[in-house]
Every structure is written in structure tokens, then in C-alpha cells.
Amino acid sequence: AESLGLKGRYARLAPALEQAFDLPLMVRIAIGSHWDRTTAEQRTKLAAAFKRMSASTLATFVTGYSGERFETISEGPGPQNVHLVKTRIIDPDGSHVNITYIAKRYPDGWKLIDVVVDAGISELAVRQSEYRLILKENGIDGLIRALNVKADQLMS
Asked: How far apart are CA 66 and CA 83, in angstroms?
């Protein structure tokens, strides 16, 4: 992580993020009923901005490896035809963070659609809360700008 630097981590993480997550569905869920009022061009721009912001955020979090390990606890069906994969990241000192991945099956395989940290903090719920005011005050184009500005700030 250190030798790659922030931009190198972004370059490595962005394609993996896009492959693992259904980012267009995630942003659609995050903006709720506003999705129905978007054009095809806005949807494309919104998905791209959401991807940039998500990958930039992840690149700032992944700064090195200190002996952490990843453990799958359980997996099984969840509500609304999703699959729950319960995991934890364990630090060398024994402390851990619980993470539940919410996955959806597609004809070509599985994609993640949400991440829940510590059995209660949904990434999509956080995004919905953040985006609600932006959408109310500045609309879809304002949200696209805000996501791109956030990605730029994280990468600078």
C-alpha cells in the first residue's frame, strides 16, 4: 500500500470494486425515488461518480497491512432474495470488526449490494442519509458534482 501510494491503490482497487459490487444498483437504492426522475445520461454520470467516490474512499482506508486476518463466520439467505455473508477482520491483538456483506445473485454470478459494519451500520443507509439533503437542495446534478468533488478531495 505504501509503495503504491494513494493513486496506485485507487488504480488497483477501482476495478476490483466494480467487479465485486453492483454499484449502479447501490446508487439507485441510495437515492431512492429520485432515481425515477433521472435521465439515462444522469444515471450514467451518477454511477460513475459513485464509483469514483467509493474507490477513493477505499483507497484512503487501505494504507497497509499489520497482520490482520479475514474470517468468514457464516453465510445464508437473507430478506428480499439476498444472501448474507458474515465475516470479521481480526487484528493481531485479538480485537475485531464484524462485517456483513449483502450479496445478490445474477445470471453471471454474485455481486455485493451493501456492507453492514458491526451489525448495524449499513453503507447504503449512511449514503441515503448523506444524499437526502444534497438531492433536496441541488438535485441529481448537484449530487453528481458533490460525489466528484468528494472523490477529488480524497485523492488530493
From this structure: 30
Contacts 24+ apart (CB under 8 A), 29-33: 29/113, 29/114, 29/124, 29/128, 30/124, 30/127, 30/128, 30/131, 31/128, 31/131, 31/135, 31/140, 31/143, 32/128
Determine contact, residues 53/151, Cβ cutoff 8 Å.
yes
pLDDT tens digit string along 72-122? Answer: 999 999 999 999 999 999 999 999 999 999 999 999 999 999 999 997 889
Cα dihedral sign, 35-36-37-39? positive
Distance CA 54, CA 57 (A): 5
Other C-beta atoms closer than 10 Å to the C-beta of 66 total 8
Nearest-angstrom CA–CA distance, 62 and 59: 5
3-state secondary structure of 4: coil
Q: What letter would DSSP give residue 21?
A: B
**Cβ 71 vs Cβ 90: under 8 Å:** yes
41-77 pLDDT per residue, tens: 999 999 999 999 999 999 999 888 889 999 999 999 9
In angstroms, rounded to a whole number, what is the distance separating the alpha carbons of residues 94 and 96? Answer: 6
